[in-house]
Write a structure and sequence with these properties.
Elements (H helix, E strand, L loop, with lengths): L4 H4 L13 E6 L8 E7 L2 E7 L12 H4 L1 H5 L9 E3 L8 E3 L2 H18 L4 E5 L5 H11 L4 E2 L2 H4 L1 H8 L10 E3 L6 E5 L7 H14 L2 E5 L5 H5 L2 E3 L6 H14 L5 H7 L5 E4 L18 E4 L4 E4 L13 E2 L5 E4 H9 L6 H8 L3 H17 L2 E3 L3 E2 L5 E2 L2 E3 L2 E5 L1 H4 L4 H14 L9 E3 L67 H7 L7 E5 L11 H9 L12 E6 L11 E4 L8 E3 L11 E7 L12 H11 L17 H8 L29 H7 L3 E5 L12 H10 L15 H10 L9 H10 L21 E6 L24 E4 H6 L7 E5 L4 E9 L6 E5 L16 H4 L37 E6 L40
Parallel strand pairs: 6-7, 6-23, 9-10, 9-21, 10-11, 23-24, 24-25, 29-33, 30-32
Antiparallel strand pairs: 1-2, 2-3, 4-5, 4-25, 8-22, 12-16, 13-14, 15-16, 17-20, 18-19, 26-27, 27-28, 29-34, 30-33, 31-32, 31-34
Helix pairs in contact: 5-19, 7-16, 10-13, 10-14, 10-16, 13-14, 19-20, 23-24
The structure holds iron/sulfur cluster (SF4).
């Protein structure tokens, strides 16, 4: 009798043979998106990585990077053991040491600093996903010189959002993918929130919603958009203000929304020259005032009965004149200089297109408005039977942010959203918990600590006015990166890109130790890369001491930065440790729910490496930092990071994880420590999510149910309504200070600049590098992140390298033809600052005034355990060599950072260049730096293979 089908089937073509003997859930770290993954293991090795279909971030979707996590895990570039530098800095000569020696050395260095002056330690991290820990560690150590990479990345986006709508795009808010009908995407390449955006765009496409991508380059999301607007870099703010002009002119604004939920009706004092000019008129209780059309009287803005006016000059009881913020705003943007015809040449977008975009956005907001049959109660107790939907959504990212005008551009975009009533209404942009937060956020940056003491608060925060700046009596910066000084007052993420230069220059003071984690400061995390390398390795002529006396570095891989460290603390991979994706940091919430997650060790390290977070906690305990030791001086978290994740309380009931709190594990948000919390997370696929209650999911800034829920969860301290800010009184306070008012005023050299750029309404100005109109550098040069790579980690990954093994300079065909450049030609790219030689490729989908390349592909020869002749170092390149970290000297010699004047965000998309056909053919991109010696690493096979051992045995015949 014939056997049944399954026994007859050839095992080699069976479709569902088990491939693994164990599956572990954890969270991806191949980019910032933090998707849920299932790691399939076979005989203790990774068989493959699968997206977790239950996970709220990715719903099973896994990108190329996520799949290639296998090759990250088995990379020959992984560091193996702690290292002590034995050759000169930069030589790459190291000796492997034991952890005890490494930790004792770090404790000796750091302990002496803390006893002397804690701010002599600068702790800066790169794409660290444990900032809730690293920032708190800095607080306990007592150094205000702490930040992650936000100042180099997109702080303009974050700060503009938080100072305007109490939230931001990025991964802190999302379009209403289910309901929006018109979606404007500004400056977004593959980036943060990668898989959610892909999933969302798929939904929009499925529903036939229109996607408009505004981006100088047509790749990725722009390539699948219904319309691509190839704008000139740095002019997005002007385009947005022209859209504002058009919708104001057409009267297509949501006046009810503006009156009810924004400060548009708040009366602004009009008393030119007075100390209160431009501030809000306030009552005795401090509440802002509005003109009530119903009672024809001035009343408190919080009066629920008022019908606030948006226009009209009023007399305050004391005789001062005041006008609503809306009127000031409308007067400004109705000016013909914002008309489409006036901005078309500057933006490179035809006036007819700008007009049509405004019509389309307004059409979606008003003609396609809809109601959700969802009753709700607002923060003033008013009952609403339905929720009004405005199906126009916007999203933006680094492309508009990394300019010297990025802060105001981001604010302009939020203004446009508010005018259309399109912030957290159905169909529009939606906050993700714990946002929205009060405006500005309550936490202010802490000043320096005394020797041996912790800071009084966190090192990063949000100034509310000039009095919150971190400057000394002479008005000089107190932080090494100049954050929160008059040069960068709202530097909410610190300024990673200024640390090396200032530490080298010893300005404003000498630091002793630069402690870096995952920050490739000698290569792709630096502007002005060649000089940065010199600064890291330079000695003081008189003393012979390195100008930056000590550098401690922690990373999992042999990046270019390793060669410049004195002490290297090798980290694990993301699959070998516990991690905490916390609501105290950068959570994985979505607009319908709050969520957080963990990583759990999927594999045991096969090297003598330790999780950086464990090391930090161990150092904290050895240094006896408050918070890291108990009353008897014993380690408070002897189980290191997992112990901290479970048992640390930032305040009573609030810990790193919000799920399964309380002694019985039933509390969410706030609750007592649950010793079984990590086990619960592991049982639940390593994530927790709590749905926002029905009726609380829109209008979150003024929704009683949401505000009460958010307070109960610990996201906000008070359940007061959050009023969106079309007009920023905070910015006006800085401007008044620059005009000579108040006790805290900028020094003379900064006055003009603060007065110019601290405008309470969004402004647009040419990016600094372009503002002199020089014809010598007629092109913009920008970078984009490819879909298949995140940062410099990616281009040492054997699978991802096969997708992007080298990069080229992409030039518009017409521009290339004008320079007689053809595909594959070598070209010189010249900026004010430097020159590189690279290979060119031509394309249509790029703004003709713009050249671009993929970022972070170029590698320094010898780094990352790549073959010294690897394509990444031979033909790959960085444009960082062309970017100066400083602007040209001003009168008197002072050089501002090449950065936004409000937040200090690095302006690396401001770069201007010219291109020239290379005089002679070459095969190697320039500049080319001598290879540093490699630290001791695993042997590097000439071809890196993985997976052959899992092949089924050849069938016996
Ligand atoms: S989008 Fe990012 S986090 Fe998600 S799978 Fe890809 S690399 Fe991993």
């Amino acid at each position: 009798m014939p056997d049944s089908g399954s026994q007859q089937r050839d095992p080699e073509i069976a479709k569902s043979v088990p491939v693994s003997d164990e599956v572990k859930y954890t969270t991806c770290y191949m980019c910032a998106c933090r998707c849920g993954i299932k790691v399939h293991l076979k005989d203790g090795s990774i068989r493959y990585i699968e997206g977790n279909r239950d996970h709220p971030v990715n719903r099973g979707v896994l990108c190329a990077k996520g799949s290639a996590g296998i090759m990250q895990q088995y990379s020959p570039a992984r560091l193996r053991k702690p290292l002590k530098r034995v050759g000169p800095r930069g030589s790459g000569e190291f000796q492997e040491i034991e952890w005890e020696e490494a930790l004792a050395t770090a404790v000796e260095w750091l302990g002496a600093i803390r006893a002397r002056d804690p701010k002599e330690l600068a702790l800066f991290t790169g794409r660290d996903q444990s900032q809730a820990l690293t920032g708190w560690w800095a607080t306990q150590f007592g150094t205000l010189n702490y930040a992650a990479h936000g100042g180099f990345c997109s702080v303009n986006m974050a700060a503009a959002g938080l100072y305007t709508i109490g939230g931001s795009f990025w991964e802190f808010g999302e379009p209403d993918w289910e309901r929006t009908k018109y979606f404007l995407l500004f400056g977004v390449a593959e980036d943060h929130d990668s898989n959610p955006i892909k999933l969302g765009l798929g939904k929009l496409k499925g529903r036939g919603a229109k996607i408009v991508s505004i981006n100088p380059v047509r790749t990725g999301y722009s390539a699948i958009a219904d319309e691509w607007i190839g704008i000139r870099p740095g002019t997005d703010g002007l385009l947005v203000l022209a859209l504002v002009h058009e919708i104001l002119r057409a009267g297509k604004i949501d006046a009810d929304y503006l009156a009810a939920y924004t400060n548009a009706p708040w009366l602004v004092i009009d008393a030119e020259g007075a100390a209160d000019h431009g501030l809000f008129a306030r009552g005795a209780d401090g509440a802002a005032l509005v003109w009530d059309r119903k009672r024809a009287a001035i009343v408190s803005a919080s009066d629920a009965e008022a019908l606030p006016a948006l226009t009209g000059e009023r007399r305050l009881p004391d005789g001062r004149r005041a006008v609503p913020a809306f009127e000031l705003m409308a007067r400004r943007y109705l000016d013909p200089r914002f008309a489409p015809d006036a901005v078309a040449a500057e933006t490179g977008v035809p006036a007819s297109t700008i007009k049509r975009l405004a019509v389309e956005a307004a059409h979606a907001a008003f003609n396609e408005a809809f109601v959700l049959d969802q009753p709700w109660t607002d923060a003033h107790g008013r009952r609403h039977a339905t929720m009004l939907g405005r199906p126009v959504a916007m999203h933006a990212m680094r492309g508009i942010s990394a300019h010297s005008n990025g802060f105001h551009t981001c604010r302009a975009l939020h203004l446009l959203q508010m005018l259309l009533g399109a912030v957290d209404t159905p169909g529009s942009f939606r906050y993700e918990p714990p946002y929205p937060r009060p405006i500005p956020p309550a936490i202010k940056p802490a000043g320096p600590a005394e020797a041996g003491k912790p800071l009084a608060g966190p090192p990063l925060g949000f100034p509310h006015g000039p009095e919150d700046l971190l400057v000394d009596a002479a008005r000089k910066p107190l932080r090494i990166d100049r954050a929160y000084s008059w040069e960068a007052p709202l530097a909410a993420h610190g300024l990673l890109h200024l640390v090396v230069r200032n530490a080298w220059k010893r300005d404003p003071y000498r630091i002793d130790t630069l402690f870096l984690y995952m920050a490739n400061m000698s290569w792709n995390s630096a502007m002005n890369t060649a000089e940065t390398m010199q600064m890291l390795a330079e000695r003081d002529e008189a003393s012979g001491e390195y100008r930056i006396p000590r550098i401690i570095y922690s990373d999992a891989y042999a990046s270019e930065m390793v060669a410049y460290a004195d002490l290297v603390l090798p980290d694990t991979t993301y699959l070998e440790r516990y991690d905490c994706i916390s609501l105290l940091d950068r959570p994985i919430s979505d607009s319908d729910g709050a969520a957080d997650a963990i990583r759990q060790p999927v594999l045991k390290p096969d090297r003598d490496v330790r999780p950086f977070q464990d090391v930090l906690i161990e150092l904290g305990a050895r240094l006896k930092l408050p918070g890291f030791v108990d009353a008897e001086g014993k380690p408070k978290y002897p189980g290191l990071y997992p112990d901290y994740i479970v048992n640390h309380e930032r305040r009573p009931g609030m810990g790193p994880l919000a799920g399964w709190r309380g002694s019985d594990g039933t509390a969410e948000g706030l609750g007592a420590v649950n010793p079984q919390q990590l086990e619960r997370y592991v049982e639940h696929q390593c994530f927790w999510r709590a749905e926002i209650p029905e009726g609380a999911r829109f209008y979150k800034f003024a929704n009683r149910a949401y505000l009460d829920w958010a307070k109960a969860m610990g996201f906000i301290d008070r359940a007061d309504p959050i009023v969106l800010q079309i007009y920023s009184e905070t910015l006006q306070k800085f401007r008044l200070a620059a005009q000579g008012h108040g006790a805290a005023q900028p020094p003379p050299e900064h006055r003009e600049r603060v007065a110019a750029y601290f405008d309470p309404l969004p402004i647009w100005y040419r990016p600094f590098e372009e503002s002199d109109g020089s014809a010598d550098y007629p092109l913009h040069a920008i970078t984009q992140r490819p879909a298949a790579m995140y940062h410099s980690w990616g281009s040492q990954n054997a699978w991802l390298r096969q997708i992007h093994g080298e990069n080229a300079l992409y030039i518009h065909r017409a521009t290339a033809a004008a320079h007689e450049i053809a595909d594959g030609d070598w070209v010189s790219v010249v900026s004010r600052h430097g020159r590189i030689a690279v290979r060119a490729k031509t394309m249509e989908g790029v703004n003709p005034d713009t050249v671009w390349t993929w970022n972070a592909i170029g590698k320094r020869s010898g780094a990352w355990n790549l073959d010294p002749k690897a394509a990444e170092s031979q033909r790959g390149f960085l444009v960082n060599h062309l970017i100066s970290d400083l602007l040209p000297p001003r009168e008197g010699g002072y050089r501002y950072a090449n950065a936004d004047p409000v937040t200090g965000q690095a302006a690396w998309y401001d770069l201007r260049v010219r291109i020239e056909k290379a005089p002679a053919p070459t095969q190697v991109s320039e500049p080319h730096f001598a290879a540093a010696a490699s630290p001791p690493l695993a042997a590097r096979p000439s071809i890196l293979r993985y997976g052959a051992k899992f092949r089924p045995q050849a069938k016996k015949t």
